[in-house]
Design a protein that fits this description.
Elements: H1 2-21, H2 29-32, E1 39-41, E2 50-52, H3 55-60, H4 75-89, H5 96-103, H6 125-138, H7 143-153, H8 164-175, H9 179-213, H10 227-253, H11 264-275, H12 285-296, H13 299-303, H14 307-320, H15 325-331, H16 334-341, H17 353-356, H18 393-396, H19 399-413, H20 418-423, H21 427-433, H22 450-466, H23 474-481, H24 488-493, H25 496-505, H26 510-585, E3 599-603, E4 609-613, H27 614-634
Antiparallel strand pairs: 1-2, 3-4
The protein binds a DNA duplex through helix 26.
DNA sequence: GGGCGCTGTCATCTG
DNA sequence: CTCAGATGACAGCGC
């Protein structure tokens, strides 16, 4: 019945696709809701694909396990789904290039050779999940096997032209894989999982082994033992295992010495979140991912409607339309996003969403907001073309700085005037990112010619004059008193060549030149001082975190030492009790019971247990101590 | 009024 | 040498 429904559904989809190609829209969601994920028709015309928008549903049916893989009419469906998979794979930059290059090349007509037997991959849903999950996880490591398998599942759609020979062989082989082999694969994967689990448990086992090896020696050997000895030795074994168990308990009782490991960035993020009330939508992990992608992607590509830009559209809609979290989770793969967010790129969420949408920022954003001198903190690292801005800086710098780098890069790549780039700097972003920014580059207009720069700045000043004047600093007033069409902020942040050109072109006197130089120097130094202080605070916080972590670790070690000492004391006490019990049951050559005060049990290194007079051990200990003392005396 | 934190500024060093 | 950045020290200001 299940297969009949599947085939009927496939026929329905085929018919629907044909109708859609003719321009007739058919809603099959009502039927497919219980079988496929809802199909949403895109507006891209006949070439558009049916997209299973909820990625989680899509993931559950990934690789066509529940869809008949041999329906050529489903090419678009599979292609779109594969592309969506690639979009989702954007979370892992290492995966994306390989698989996209394999899928976007050309379409090979189906020769029917592999259309005979569909893979019976839809039989066991558990296997599907395992295959799907493992496939995604193993892509990073087992590119050959994982890729081959993925190709085999979608072999009716298209074939990768790169490494075609190899893949086609694998494909042919894999098409002949029967159900048993699939089960074996699943078993192997489960075995790998088990091995992984074993690996994760290995450390624990090693610890237990170490603890076990540290216990008392094995039972008596080489002695003729009476029945009482056998009982004693069995009890001794129990004691041995008890000590081991106790040590294991101690290990389990001990908490993780480092109960938390909060990075400075996390601390800064949490601090920022509490200190600034930003819209929640702009701080969601969803938005982080897209910011990350935007940083990775070439602006030209993103503007050309590449995959990242489509993500931006998702972002914009979701953030603007008040999408519920569940809906967000339905549209995007949190697993991928979490993976991305773990890449120390979380602070990219502070990029203005309007920037990501390619829209112009707030044109009336005042630069001089919170500084009485007019040289706002936000000016730091807000250059549209700072010398440090490069695509490589994304990987080298810390997140906040990188976010600005990408932002500035996108701005400069738009080819707009530098003034427009200045206007697009939202001061709010820097206020939040200053905790992450350790480059603290100053804004500069590197890519602008001098004339265009002056023009842009003058236009900006004109627009700025229309805005309400903030409380001006001394330097700001001094600059304005000179009648220059520049603010102190601009004088501070303009490139040095532009500044020199300004000094030459304005026919300034010596004192005026000195004043402008001082204004520029003070402004830069002010920013430097702010950055320096923040850096110092970061260092203090980092060190404080390290101190806290080390303190926790020290406490755990002290507790562990206490527990170990107690266990050792208990073991010694137990050993003494057992020794007395054994000695009381032993007889000397005259049949007299051994006095426990005069004899003791000695456990040798080879596992033998011998009865020795206490005087011998005492004398041995004495001689040993004397030898040690002699050696110590000889050393100096 | 003194303490404290923040901020701007200066001097100096470094790259 | 110039410039930019970093940093210690100091002063002013507000709480």
């Amino acid at each position: 019945m299940h297969h009949m429904k599947k085939y009927f559904t496939e026929g329905l989809i085929q018919f629907t696709i044909l109708l859609s190609l003719l321009g007739v829209r058919v809603d099959v969601d009502t039927y497919l809701s219980g079988y496929f994920s809802p199909l949403i028709e895109t507006d891209g015309g006949p070439s558009s694909a049916f997209i299973q928008t909820p990625f989680h549903h899509y993931r559950d049916t990934a690789a066509g396990y529940q869809v008949h893989p041999k329906c050529p009419e489903l090419d678009y469906f599979f292609t779109s789904r594969r592309l969506l998979n690639e979009v989702r794979a954007l979370g892992s930059p290492a995966r994306f290039p390989t698989r996209v290059s394999a899928w976007l090349v050309h379409l090979v007509p189906d020769d029917g050779s592999d259309a005979g037997e569909p893979h019976d991959l839809s039989g066991d849903p558990d296997d599907e999940e395992i295959n799907d999950d493992d496939h995604r996880e193993e892509d990073d490591h087992r590119t050959g096997e994982g890729f081959g398998r993925s190709v085999s599942h979608d072999s009716t759609v298209s074939r990768p032209c790169c490494a075609a020979g190899e893949l086609s062989k694998e494909e042919t082989l894999l098409n002949q894989v029967n159900e048993e082999e699939e089960e074996e694969v699943v078993k192997d994967e489960r075995g790998q999982e088990d091995s992984l689990n074993q690996l994760t448990q290995s450390s624990t086992l090693e610890q237990e082994d170490l603890l076990g090896s540290s216990t008392l020696p094995p039972p008596l050997s080489g002695l003729e033992l009476p029945p009482q000895w056998q009982d004693f030795l069995s009890e001794f074994d129990d004691f041995d295992s008890m000590v081991t168990q106790r040590m294991s308990d101690l290990e389990s009782e001990l908490p993780n010495p480092i109960s938390y490991d909060v990075s400075l960035q996390d601390a800064m993020v949490s601090r920022r979140d509490t200190a600034h009330s930003r819209p929640a939508s702009s701080r969601t992990p969803l938005f982080r991912l897209e910011s990350t992608n935007s940083s990775h992607s070439d602006p030209s590509q993103s503007s050309a409607g590449a995959l990242p830009s489509s993500l931006f559209c998702l972002s914009g809609n979701s953030s603007r339309n008040d999408t519920s979290p569940s809906q967000m989770g339905g549209y995007l793969d949190e697993a991928v996003f979490d993976h991305i967010n773990m890449l120390d790129l979380g602070n990219l969420d502070t990029i203005d969403p309007q920037m990501l949408d390619g829209r112009e920022g707030d044109m009336d954003t005042p630069w001089l907001e919170d500084s009485d001198s007019g040289l706002s903190l936000e000016s730091s690292s807000r250059s549209p073309a700072s010398p440090s801005v490069s695509s490589d800086s994304f990987y080298e710098d810390e997140g906040g700085a990188t976010g600005y780098s990408s932002e500035a890069e996108s701005l400069s790549s738009k080819g707009g005037a530098c003034a427009a780039a200045y206007r697009d700097w939202s001061p709010v972003n820097l206020v939040e990112n200053v905790w992450h920014d350790h480059t603290y580059s100053t804004p500069q207009a590197q890519n602008c010619t001098s004339s265009s720069w002056f023009t842009a700045i003058k236009q900006e000043v004109m627009s700025e004059d229309e805005a309400e004047p903030e409380e001006m600093s001394r330097d700001e007033r001094r600059v304005q008193s000179l009648g220059l069409p520049f603010s102190a902020f601009q004088i501070v942040n303009m490139p040095v060549e532009n500044f020199l050109e300004l000094l030459d072109s304005q026919n300034l006197s010596g004192s005026e030149v000195t004043l402008l130089r001082d204004v520029r120097r003070r402004g830069k130094n002010k920013l430097a001082a702010q950055n320096c202080r923040k850096r110092k605070l970061d260092t203090i916080l980092t060190l404080q975190g390290e101190v806290d972590g080390l303190s926790v670790k020290r406490d755990a070690l002290l507790r562990q030492r206490s527990h170990t000492a107690k266990a050792l004391s208990a073991a010694a006490e137990r050993f003494e009790t057992l020794s007395q019990t054994v000695l009381s049951q032993l007889r000397d050559e005259y049949g007299h019971p051994l006095n426990p005060e005069h004899y003791t049990l000695h456990c040798s290194a080879n596992g033998r247990v011998m009865v020795q007079p206490r005087s011998i051990t005492t004398s041995r200990t004495m001689t040993g101590s004397k030898t040690m003392k002699r050696k110590k005396n000889k050393k100096p």
